[in-house]
Amino acid sequence: MYGGYQGRYEPKTFVALYDDLDPATQALDVLREMGIEDRFIQVQSGVPWRPDLLGRPARPSAVSKYALIGAFLGFLSAIALYYGTPLLYPLYVGGQPLLSVPPGFIVIFELTMLGMLIASFLGVFFESLLPPVVGKRVYHPEVSDGAIAIFFQVPGHLAERVKQALSQTGAIEIEPAEGTFL
Amino acid sequence: MAGGNGHEHTKWVMVIDLDKCNGCNACVTACAMENNVAFTGEEENAYGRGMHWLRVIRYWEGEWPNVRVRYMPMMCQQCSNAPCEPVCPVFATLHSEAEELNIQVYNRCIGTRYCANNCPYIARTFNWFDYEWPEPLNFHLNPDVTVRRRGIMEKCTFCIQRINQGEEQAAAEGREVRDGEIQPACAQACPTEAIVFGNWQDPNSKVRQLAQSQRGFKYLHELGTEPKVIYLASEKHDF
Amino acid sequence: MHATNLPAELHEQVEKLRKEHLLLDPRPREEMNRMVLEAMEDVNREYFIVMVLLGLVTLVALFGAWGYAMYKGLGVAGIRRPIYWGLFIVSFVFWIGISHAGTFVSAILRVFKAEFRRPFTRAAELMTTFGLAGAGLFPLIHLGRTWRFYWMVPYPNQRWLWPNFHSPLVWDFLAINTYLLGSTMYLFLPLIPDLAMARDKSTGWRKILYTILSLGWRGTEEEWRHLQKAIQIFAWAIIPVMFSVHTIVSWDFAVAMKLGWHSTIFGPYFVIGALLSGISAVGFILYMIRVSMKNMRYFIRAEHFDALGKLLLIISMSWAYFFFNEFILEWYGGEHTVKEILRLYTQGAVAPVWWTMVVCNIVVPWAVLWNKNWRRKPWVMALMGVIVNIGMFAERYVIVTGALSRNRIPFDWGWYEPSLVEISIAVGTFALFFFLYGLASRLIPLIPVWEVEEGHHAHELKRMGKGVVVSVAELE
After folding, report:
1. How many cross-chain Cβ pairs, A to B, lie less than 8 Å apart?
2. Domain that holds residue C65
């Protein structure tokens, strides 16, 4: 049973699997030629491929911003610990001043680095929205075996034409996929 | 030499006349009794686990029969710049501003023993085990001094309990502490009065007078630890 | 790797190169996945027996003896006045040294894009994590009151007390924590894609485990981009952290007012010593992996031992340089106590240990590692791992206990011999390390398959004149 008029335009998701980079980039060209925007395409791969090798838009990762913010927070906590806590309860040791600069560098260095590392670690998961909390996301387990999986969303009535075009590009398989891109 | 710089704040000072010390060890005993220093037993003591806060260093000199022995009572020097203090991660040993002494807070100590390694005077002792006092010594325990348990450092305090007591007594009577009124156990027990204790800030105190002596020196003075024990060298020897 | 359009007469050369280099000898990803998973899931009888034994030794020799020491007091150790630190601190420094292997091999080689690192970065990183697990125990074990260790942690508390930030032990605490957390995260990040691979390929409880651990990794462009950025940040940032850790460990000694310890060269000297023991230990671990796990002969080859051997030779030479610096300047200075300490090292009671150090750290590595044929033999490198680590253990033993037994007051000179409890705990940590490593080897893919595949893509054979050369593309 086909849906109504509305249902025909309902977007559908498909996945095309490739075993090498060249046919995959070719397929991406085909998809673009057919008018599918980059944001309706997602590539999954078992090894990282540079965006320019895939011919995909390159966006810088925001993880470095996390690193910076984390480093700053670490720095602040080091200042608070090293220059703040002795003031709460001043205790003098070894004829040394309560607050001194050189040993502070050590504390500042360690905590700055710690903040930076923790933040970049968490940044990976925040930015990639991992782990998935709600909803199913598109995935194909062949990716683990080195396949390049191209997921694309097309309006229902165009699906057959796109699949037709892609079959020329040497896809191992083209099948419907379920889930969101995210 | 002695009494030079770094003494503006110094309060309590000990002078030890090495010429008078005959190595009788009365000070060691008195210290142990006063401060509840544990008896570790013959075997442990021989192994290097004696808990003495005060020990009498003994050096033999010369070849037989021209042998001479010299003694040097050694305890915590209450350094103004104490190397043991900054290395403690938990402030268990620190500088007390009230008494200008180096104090050890037993219940704060976690037993890293770093302070002991960093003490150039090897003045600190460690509670290797929980020690028991054999009968009848368990009755002598001084109620003014904490009994320490296993795993913590301890060291000479200049009998801080006596200092506090003396100061409170004087304050209650509305007067200054008299010179010689406060005496640590070792000084009290010394039969030759080689150990003298007193207030540096009092210009007429006996310690101040003795420290003027040309024989005065501070042990390992060159390390810059600013010890508060001033030794008077025995005439034939310089340390 | 694409070796197309190479003339047939070069076939022999190509085959030789393939046999030699993992990254020129590609296999389909599917097959590599299967090989790695097979090695991981291979829990046979021998493995089981070894693990039970290691577990028992850990339980009795390490935790049993530790419990006994806590219950009785630290007197059960051999330490005595004036040697307040003994085998516990020696082992602490030793394991911190081992932990430097992972970071050095993985981070520095990653930063410099040394391709031979690919198959064994994870094996080395695991050594960091478990080395630190062993090292982290000793500051607790050696405490007189272990149950109060948390007083070193900076947190608002009812005692109104914060730790003393002047103390090198607090710096230690911060540095080791940073390093432990940092290196564990650094281990985990490149592991995620492999965990996702294991998730897709396994069944039963493993499937559940890897589903949880892989955190829903799919390998999308976004995920890879963020992951690679983070790995890049980690590889750069963990290097100074690694240097700081062993530097600060050396400062535990160097800041002290203790002759034989108070040396300005201790920082770099300890760092290079840590690398020496760490890198040689990587050789040992790689040998163990190669002989005891399935399919590892494909991934870990003579070329890797060869590369590690060269690295080890350079580090051994650098260590000798620092050692000579440390020794000759102290000796030349001529201070009485220092001379006594050095006499104790070279001629006194500590001399057997000190000379063991010299032989194991300098003589043996230099005599063996110059020879390419020896470097390429896995068992030789495994043996070097053992020998050099004996040497490095001896070095720490000399520095910690030797220096402490001589001080400025000859009346208080002492002598230290480790007690049975100390030896038992030190041995127990080795069991702990191998137990944890053995456990991890069957729980996580030990070979970073995706990195190896990336390496395969990056390498290409090219005809040049009459021969074949390797060319490497930059894919990162």
Report:
1. 29
2. 44-72+418-441
Task: Say if the Cβ atoms of A113 and C197 lie within 8 Å.
Answer: no
* Every domain of chain A and the residues it spans: 5-57+135-176, 63-127
- Which of B49, B130, B220 faces C80 most closely, judged by CB atoms? B49
Per the structure, the count of domains in chain C is 2
Q: Pairing between strand B101-104 and B125-126?
A: unpaired
**CATH number of the domain at B12-232, out of 2.40.160.10, 3.20.20.70, 3.30.70.20, 3.50.20.10?**
3.30.70.20
CA A129 to chain CA mean position, Å: 7
Pairwise CB contact (< 8 Å): A94 & B86: yes
Report the residue from C164, C175, C230 with minimal CB separation from A93.
Answer: C164
CATH code given to domain A5-57+135-176: 3.30.70.120
**What is the full per-residue pLDDT of chain C (476 aa) written as tens digits?**
455 567 777 888 888 898 899 999 999 999 999 999 999 999 989 999 999 999 999 999 999 999 999 999 999 999 998 999 999 999 999 999 999 888 888 898 889 888 999 999 999 999 999 999 999 999 999 999 999 999 999 999 888 899 999 999 999 999 999 999 999 999 999 999 999 999 999 999 999 999 999 999 999 999 999 999 999 999 999 999 999 999 999 999 999 999 999 999 999 999 999 999 999 999 999 999 999 998 999 999 999 999 999 999 999 999 999 999 999 999 998 889 999 999 999 999 999 999 999 999 999 999 999 999 999 999 999 999 999 999 999 999 999 999 999 999 999 999 999 999 999 999 999 999 999 999 999 999 999 999 999 999 999 888 888 888 888 888 87
Residues C242, C293, single domain; the answer is yes
Note whether C183 and C52 are same-domain residues. Answer: no
C389 and C424 both lie in a single domain: no
Which residues on C lie below 8 Å from B48 (Cβ)?
Answer: 80-82, 414
Residue C275 parent element (H or E): helix C266-292
CA distances from C440 to B77, C126, C216, C284, C380 (A): 53, 8, 21, 17, 25
Q: Check whether residue C168 and residue C262 sit in a common domain.
A: yes
User: pTM, whole model, 2 decimals?
Assistant: 0.94
| C134/C143 Cα distance (integer angstroms) | 15
Give domain limits for chain B: 12-232
